[in-house]
Amino acid sequence: MALRTSPEIGGMGHSIKRKEDPRFIRGKGNYVDDVQLPGMLYLDIVRSPYAHAKIKKIDSSKALATPGVAAVITGQDLAKYNLHWMPTLMSDTQMVLPVEKVMYQAQEVAAVLATSRYAAADGAAAVEVEYEPLPVVVDPKKALRPDAPVLRTDKKDKKDNHIWHWEWGNKDSTDRAFRDADVTVKQEIYLPRIHVASIETCGCVAHFDKVNGKLTVWMTTQAPHAIRTVFALVAGHVGLAEHKIRIISPDIGGGFGGKVPVYPGYVIAVAASVLTGKPVKWIEDRMENLQADSFARDYHIAAELAAKKDGTLTALKIKTIADHGYADAAANPSKFPAGLFHICTGSYDFKAAHVEVDGVYTNKPPGGIAYRCSFRVTEAVHTIERMADLMAHELGMDPAEFRLKNFIKPEQFPYKSALGWEYDSGNYAGALQKAMEKIGYAELRREQAEKRKRGELMGIGISSFTEIVGAGPSKHFDILGLKMFDSCEIRIHPTGKAIARFGTKSQGQGHETTYAQILAEELGIPAADIQIEEGDTDTAPYGLGTYASRSTPVAGAAAAMAARKIQDKARKIAAYLLEAHEEDLVWEPGKFSVKGAPNRAKTIQEIAFAAYTNHPQGMEAGLEAVSYYDPPNLTFPFGSYICVVDIDKGTGEVKVRRFVAVDDCGNIINPMIVEGQIHGGLTMGLAPALYEEISYDELGNIQGGSFIDYLLPTAVETPKWETDKTCTPSPHHPLGAKGVGESATVGAPAAIANAVVDALWHLGVRHVDIPITPAKVWKLLREKGVTE
Ligand code: CDP
Q1: Which atom in ligand 1 lies closest to the alpha carbon of residue 548?
Q2: Which helix (H) or strand (E) holds 597?
Q3: Does the active-site annotation cover 411?
Q4: Quick one: which atom of ligand 1 is closest to the CA of 517?
Q5: Ligand 1 lining (C-beta closer than 6 Å)
Q6: How far is the centre of ligand 1, averaged over its atoms, from the C-alpha of 510 (Å)?
Q7: Nearest CA to ligand 1 atom 3
Q8: 430: part of which helix (H) or strand (E)?
Q9: Band of the pLDDT at 248, cuts 50, 70, 90?
C-alpha cells in the first residue's frame, strides 16, 4: 500500500515507535496490582485439593483467629444474596463459591479477607475444610458413557454429562461425496488443554463507595463494558445498577482470551467490598492462574477427507468431543457453541463438508476460551492442515503441490464455503509461493532426500491457514444478547490536538499507537497529537472489547468512520472560511484547498480552531464524532508457513531449524507492530506444538499446574523467525485492513507438526499429537526400530 501521509503525520504504513512503550520499558505502567487505596483489604482463596467431593464442613475459627484476618467468606454467605452461582457467557451456570460440592481440583472453596496479602494467605491456610471424595470423571469419552456419574447434580433434570450437540453443513452431500471418493483418509487428532499464561495473572481491586453507592472495579479484563453489563444483570437485585458501576481496565499484561471470562475471584472481591465498605484487592498467584482459570482447546477430533485420484479434494467430515470441564464457560459468540470451528474447510475449495461437535462435562476447570485465536479457529486450522498433509502423503503428492491444486483461487472471491462463510478476499497460492521461494523449498526437498539416504531425520512442514476475525456482524454475532459491534469517539480540541476513546482494550498490542495512526491517516492530524484512551466504562463509548483479533476489523473501522464524519463537518467549516463551495474543495491529509488554487487552503488545525471560535451561524460548535461500527462481514487474513525440523534420533528432540512465515492481513497500519504481533504469535504457536499441555490423572490431579512442568518456550528454544508478507486488502473494511494478532498462533502449530510427520512418514508414522515432546518421538522411533 502506497503511503498517503508524511512521517511527521505518521498515518497508515509508517513503522512509528509505540507511544505506550516509554512507560512500559521504564516500569511506569499502571497495572491492577499497582492500584493502592487507603484501608484496602486483601483477598486470598482457599482451593480444593479434590477434583470432585462433597463439602461436609468448613471451619473458619482458626482462620479468624489469625492476626490480620478480617473475615472468611463461604458459599453459604454468598447464598444469602443468591450470589453463590453466576451465569457463564454460554448461558450455563458456574459456582462462585460452593455450598454442596466441588467439581475440580483448585476450585475456589472459601475466601479470606485480611489487612495484608500475607495475612490473607495465612488465613486461607488455616481454614479447615472437611471433604467427602466423590467419583471423578476426567475423560470426556468416559463421561458420555451411560454408567458415568452425573456431574451436574445441581441441574435437577440432568441425567448425563452431555452439554450440547451442534452440527453444521450438509450431511447427505458429504456422505455422498465420501461414497464416490477415490481416496479417503481418517485421523484422530487431540488438541490438549493449554493455558495462555500471560505475564500478568488475573486480579482486581473492587471499591464500593457506600456514600455514593458507586462501585469501581479496576480489573484485568479484555471487555470492560460487557463485564459492567453482566455485573449489573447479576447483581442488580442487590442494588448495583449499571450507572453505579465503573469498570476500569488499566494496563493489561497480556490477555490472549484468558481475561475475557468473569472468574469467581472478581465476584467475591466485589461482594466483599460491598459488604465491608472497604476496597478489596484480589490478585491470583501463578499457580492459581494456571490451575483454575479458563483453559483453551481440549478438543478430541475425528476427521476424514475425501479426494479424487488426481488429488482434488471433494469432502470433509469432522466429529468432535469438546471437553468443557464442569461448566460450559467458553468465551464464544452465543449462537456458536463451538465458536467458529466451522472455518475448518480452511483455504481449500471443498464442495461438501459436515461438522459435528458435542460438548461434555468433566471434573476439570470450566472454560474453552479462544487462546489467541478467533473462537476455536486454531482447532479448525490444525485439523485441516494436518489432514491436507496426510492426504498429500497418502496420494504420494508433494504437500505444496497438493495445496496449490486445491486452494480457493483469487478469482473465486468473495467465496462462499461449503460451511457457509463468505471469505472476503485471498490469494493463497501467492503466499505459499512466496514462502517456498524464501525458504528454498525445492533445494530443501533435495537435501531431505539425501539425508534420508543417510538415515538422518529431516522434515518440511507447511501450513496454509485461513483465519476469520472481526466479529460481528451483529446479525450473527452477540455475547449474551450484546451485539458484536465496536466503537470510537473522537474529540478535536480547539488547537487541533485530539482525544479518541474506544470500546476495545489493548493488552499489549499497541492500540495507543495504531488507532492514532488510523486517525492521522484520515484527518491528517499527526499521530503524536492524538491521545488514545480505552478501558474506562465511565468515559469510553460502549464496545464489546478486544479478543479474537477484532480491534482493527471493528474498532479500527469505527475510527475511520468517525473520522470521516469529522472530515465532513471540517469540509463545511473550510468552505465557510474559504468562501467556497464544499464541492470545490479538495482534501489531502491535513488540509482542504480550493480546486485549482492550492494556496487557498485551510489546515485541519485551523478548521478545528474555527469550530470553536468562528463556525458558521446555524452550525453546532465543536468538532466531535462517534461511530458504532457494525461490520458487514468478518475479515479473512491468511498466510503460509513453512517449517524445517531436524530430529535427534538418540533423544527424539525436535529442533526447528528454519521457519518462514508469509502473512497477509490486507493493508497494514504499522508494519513494525504487525511484525511484532507475528513474532509473538509464532512463539505462542511453537509453545503448544512442542511444549505446553495441561493434563489430569485419573483422580483429577492436575499435571502441568506450575511452570515446573508447564513448559513455556524461552529465547533459548525459540528459533529465528523469518517473516514476509503479501497484501490482499479486505474489500469491505474502510481501510482495507484485516486483523492479524492471532494469525501466527493459529497457523504455526500445524506447520511444526506437519514437519515432524514429514520427517517420520517413511518409517510408517502418520500422525503425532501436539505437544510433540522428545519422549513421544523417542517412543515412536523405538517402535520403528530406529533407536534403541
Ligand atoms: O484485537 P487485537 O488488537 O488483538 O488484534 P488486531 O486487530 O489484529 O491488532 C493487533 C495489532 O496489530 C494492533 O495494534 C493493530 O492496530 C495492528 N495491526 C496493523 O497494524 N495492521 C493490520 N492490518 C492489522 C493489525
Answers
A1: 1
A2: strand 597-603
A3: no
A4: 16
A5: 509-511, 514, 546, 549-552, 665-670, 673-674, 677, 737-741
A6: 8
A7: 551
A8: helix 428-439
A9: very high
> Any residues with CB less than 8 A from the CB of 134 and at least 6 apart, and which?
52, 53, 54, 101, 149
Q: Does 239 score more than 90 pLDDT?
A: no
Question: What is the DSSP pairing of strand 721-725 with strand 654-664?
Answer: parallel
Cell of 256: 490472549
Our answer to whether residue 742 is catalytic in this structure is yes
Say how many Å lie between the CA of residue 260 and the centre of ligand 1: 18
Q: Of the residues 373, 488, 643, 665, which is catalytic?
A: 373
452 is catalytic: no
**343 alpha carbon to ligand 1 midpoint, in Å?**
21
Residue with cell 506447520: 751
Could you give the domains of the chain? 21-29+486-629 (3.30.365.10), 32-134+202-283 (3.90.1170.50), 296-408+428-471+633-783 (3.30.365.10)
Choose the catalytic residue: 18, 372, 376, 386: 372
Q: Tell me the per-residue pLDDT of 490-526, one tens digit each, with 9 for 90 and over.
A: 999 999 999 999 999 999 999 999 999 999 999 999 9
DSSP string, 446-503: HHHHHHHHTT-EEEEEEEEEE--B----TTT-EETTEE--EEEEEEE-TTS-EEEEES
* Active site annotation includes 600: no
The active-site residue, picked from 222, 291, 507, 509, is 222
Report residue 237's pLDDT band, with 50, 70 and 90 as the boundaries.
confident
Rounded Cα–Cα distance for residues 374 and 550 (Å): 9
**Grid cell at residue 362:** 468433566
Q: How far is the CA of 474 from the centre of ligand 1 (A)?
A: 21
Ligand 1 centroid–CA 680 distance in Å is 13
Q: Residue of the nearest CA to atom 22 in ligand 1?
A: 668
d(CA 760, CA 765): 6
Mean pLDDT of 255-265: 96
Per DSSP, the three-state class of 609 is: helix
Give me 537's grid cell.
466504562
pLDDT at residue 788 tops 80? no
The answer to whether 14 touches 674, Cβ cutoff 8 Å, is: no
Query: Is the pTM for the entire model greater than 0.85?
Result: yes
With cell 531449524, the residue in question is: 657
Report pLDDT digits (tens) over 685-711. 999 999 999 999 999 999 999 999 999
DSSP secondary structure, 497-522, as one string? -EEEEESS--SSS-HHHHHHHHHHHH
Between helix 399-406 and helix 377-395 the angle, nearest 10°, is 110
Ligand 1 atom index nearest CA of 741: 8
DSSP state of 343: G
Please give the pLDDT value at position 491.
98
Query: How many angstroms separate the alpha carbon of residue 78 from the centre of ligand 1?
Result: 41
Question: How many residues in total does the chain contain?
Answer: 788
Across 374-412, b (16+ Cβ under 10 Å) vs e yields bbbbbbbbbbbbbbbbbbbbbbebbbbebbebbbbeeee
pLDDT at 198 > cutoff 90: yes
